[in-house]
């Protein structure tokens, strides 16, 4: 993926939203990017995108979020989904046990197809439907800890924790990238990069474009 | 005849596809207007039939190409446009075919009902009823979830509850299924349910539970008879208009089945690809030939795979346009692509097959019986092994080309491409867009022929 140098933001991060059909991925996205929630939301066909630019740890970050269809057969275009993605929000529905049980499948899909450095956050959505809950928050927390993921319960309907979820994953990504950039500089042993130097952050492709002219 | 609306001819089509009062503000406006002298009117339509019922298709196509179809007769007209009937058949022939098809549909539905008693029951499943290895799921937790879906905001549909499922499980027993097709079919049922509950819910029409279950039943039966495609997200968007336009469930099913002949290739998935990628590649090569600068630009921005057009092809602009406007666009595309031999080729190949890739047979019919786009293809005889490229590819290409300057100047990322196209597509005028597609098609054919020479 190529990004032209632009003064509007410091970093462009591609995040994918994945999880079973009907868990609320598209509404999480619309809550985050447009502060909207749609009761008559429609199924996602293949892949849809949206972006939002925000401040994270003093940097301007443009989050490019790929919303994906939950139906398994659409995973055939997997390589395009994951190409260049630096983060994944793995969503389940707290009222649907099966969507939680399927988290393991989604994790193995990420491990098979995404960059090994991808930052993953697990999200239990629909926390407003507490009376219908079938996955306890502790269960979510325990699984996240076991798999080494960050975790939050959200409600796209009540705008609860959606912002926080994205802030968390974006700052996690930012920290990793800053560390890598620093390490790269030290390895090069020649101080800060000069104009035109390309820094490779992830193994896959250049998602970082500050002070560099990645193609 | 299947007429359901009796409003006056001058009505705008919002009279026909009414929205829920609380949803009117968040759907696109409808631009389609019934134009006297242009739109195919009820009177013109009836006048196009001979005494015995054979249809003068050329005059009908002309009208549709110039102003769409009056919503009051859309269902009947679509049956011809989609190839359910031969225009040269008589009233009697068609009655006969219709009866036979209704019986066939009832038979398939009965088969499905036998496998899963929810079919035809007025109920919709939204949670899996079987595991991937064929073990029926009837533990109370899942059943509870299924009932719970009923209480979610916006959902008005009954889902399976413990009572029914226990009675159904006693009949189908708890033994493990082994037939691969049956398992696959059962695994799609809840996905269909999840999508039916999210299809065109801003329309008053779907406030009626029976219409929702019609949609679920038709998609469930289709998934059973088309084993290769089954059900894929997006198909509910394509099926919904048929149910709105045709009162009889079986008639709606057959219209949908005909539409799928054209589109099922898009939904066919392998491990590595989705069928629609074929069309995305066609689109890429057309833009490469006709606007190489734009193609390079898109590629630079990470859009060289044209995935941003994925949904446009899958559901033919249904998500960009209002309900009425997308129907107007569809009928215009089908009129342009019309081939009077469609009926016979479909009948020969049997249900749930592709639109035919067998190339052109010598035709005895007058070219006036063909749509304009089809005529241009016949003249140049430029068809690949996959058969003709659908007009939708040129339609998207012409939208891109028309906005080439804007895309080149303003798009600095994938999101800009999508934003620009969403704005354009929301205001798409079906007639202008089709005219643009035809022009681009002609240009493309000239270029390709120049290359060959």
TrEMBL record, chain A:
CDD domains: Rab11_like. GO terms for cellular component: endosome; Golgi apparatus. GO terms for molecular function: GTP binding; GTPase activity. Residues 192-207 have a biased composition (Polar residues). SUPFAM superfamilies: P-loop containing nucleoside triphosphate hydrolases (SSF52540). The keyword Transferase does not apply. Residues 187-215 are annotated as: Disordered. The keyword Nucleotide-binding applies. Its main location: membrane. It is found in: Endomembrane system. Keywords: GTP-binding, Lipoprotein, Membrane, Nucleotide-binding, Prenylation. Pfam families: Ras. It comes from the Eukaryota. It is a lipid-anchor. InterPro entries: P-loop_NTPase (IPR027417), Rab_GTPases_membrane_traffic (IPR050209), Small_GTP-bd (IPR005225), Small_GTPase (IPR001806). Belongs to the small GTPase superfamily. Rab family. This is Ras-related protein Rab11C. The gene is LOC123123532.
UniProtKB/TrEMBL annotation, chain B:
Signal peptide: none annotated. PROSITE patterns: TBC_RABGAP (PS50086). Residues 149-175 are annotated as: Disordered. Pfam families: RabGAP-TBC. Residues 68-337 form the Rab-GAP TBC domain. It comes from the Eukaryota. Residues 155-172 have a biased composition (Low complexity). This is Rab-GAP TBC domain-containing protein. It comes from Triticum aestivum (Wheat).
């Amino acid at each position: 993926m190529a990004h032209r140098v632009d003064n509007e933001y410091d970093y462009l991060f591609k995040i994918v939203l994945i999880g079973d059909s009907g868990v609320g991925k598209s509404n999480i996205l619309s809550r985050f990017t447009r502060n909207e929630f749609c009761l008559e939301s429609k199924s996602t066909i293949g892949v849809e995108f949206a972006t939002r630019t925000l401040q994270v740890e003093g940097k301007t970050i443009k989050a490019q979020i790929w919303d994906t269809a939950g139906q398994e057969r659409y995973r055939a275009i997997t390589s395009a989904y994951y190409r260049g993605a630096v983060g994944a929000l793995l969503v389940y529905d707290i009222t649907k046990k099966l969507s939680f049980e399927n988290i393991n499948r989604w994790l193995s899909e990420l491990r098979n197809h995404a960059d090994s450095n991808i930052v993953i956050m697990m999200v239990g959505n629909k926390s407003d439907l507490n009376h219908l809950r079938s996955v306890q928050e502790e269960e979510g927390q325990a699984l996240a800890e076991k798999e080494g993921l960050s975790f939050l319960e959200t409600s796209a309907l009540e705008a609860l924790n959606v912002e926080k979820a994205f802030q968390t994953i974006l700052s996690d990504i930012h920290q990793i990238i800053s560390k890598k950039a620093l390490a790269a500089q030290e390895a090069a042993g020649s101080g800060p990069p000069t104009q035109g130097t390309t820094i490779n952050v992830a193994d896959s492709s250049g998602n970082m474009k500050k002070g560099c002219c990645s193609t | 005849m299947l007429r359901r609306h009796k409003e006056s001819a001058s009505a705008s089509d919002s009279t026909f596809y009414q929205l829920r009062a609380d949803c009117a503000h968040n759907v696109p406006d409808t631009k389609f207007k019934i134009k006297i002298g242009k739109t195919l009117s009820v009177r013109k339509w009836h006048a196009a039939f001979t005494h015995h019922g054979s249809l003068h298709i050329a005059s009908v196509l002309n009208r549709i190409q110039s102003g769409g179809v009056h919503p009051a007769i859309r269902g009947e007209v679509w049956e011809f446009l989609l190839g359910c009937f031969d225009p040269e058949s008589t009233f009697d022939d068609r009655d006969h075919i219709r009866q036979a098809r209704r019986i066939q549909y009832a038979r398939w539905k009965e088969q499905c009902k036998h496998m899963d008693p929810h079919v035809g029951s007025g109920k919709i499943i939204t949670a899996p009823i079987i595991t991937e290895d064929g073990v029926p799921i009837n533990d109370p937790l899942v059943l509870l979830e299924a009932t719970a879906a009923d209480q979610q905001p916006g959902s008005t549909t009954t889902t399976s509850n413990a009572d029914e499922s226990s009675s159904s499980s006693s009949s189908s027993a708890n033994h493990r299924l082994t037939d691969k097709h049956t398992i696959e079919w059962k695994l799609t049922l809840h996905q269909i349910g999840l999508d039916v509950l999210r299809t065109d819910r801003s329309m008053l029409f779907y406030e009626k539970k029976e219409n929702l279950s019609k949609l679920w039943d038709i998609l469930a039966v289709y998934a059973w008879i088309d084993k290769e495609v089954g059900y894929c997200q997006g198909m509910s968007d394509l099926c919904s208009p048929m149910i709105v336009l045709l009162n009889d469930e079986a008639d709606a099913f057959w219209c949908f089945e005909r539409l799928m002949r054209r589109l099922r290739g898009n939904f066919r998935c392998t491990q590595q690809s989705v069928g629609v990628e074929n069309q995305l590649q066609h689109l890429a090569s057309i833009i490469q030939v006709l606007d190489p600068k734009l193609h390079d630009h898109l590629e630079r921005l990470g859009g060289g795979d044209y995935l941003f057009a994925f949904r446009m092809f899958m559901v033919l602009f249904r998500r960009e346009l209002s309900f009425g406007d997308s129907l107007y666009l569809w009928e215009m595309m089908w009129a342009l692509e019309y081939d009077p031999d469609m009926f016979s080729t479909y009948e020969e190949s049997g249900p749930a097959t592709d639109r035919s890739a067998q190339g052109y047979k010598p035709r005895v019919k007058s070219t006036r019986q063909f749509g304009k786009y089809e005529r241009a293809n016949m003249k140049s005889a430029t068809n690949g092994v996959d058969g003709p490229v659908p007009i939708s590819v040129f339609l998207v290409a012409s939208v891109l080309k028309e906005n080439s300057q804007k895309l080149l100047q303003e798009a600095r990322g994938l999101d800009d491409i999508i934003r620009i196209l969403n704005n354009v597509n929301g205001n798409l005028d079906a007639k202008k867009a089709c005219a643009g597609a035809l022009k681009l098609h002609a240009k493309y054919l000239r270029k390709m022929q120049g290359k060959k020479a």
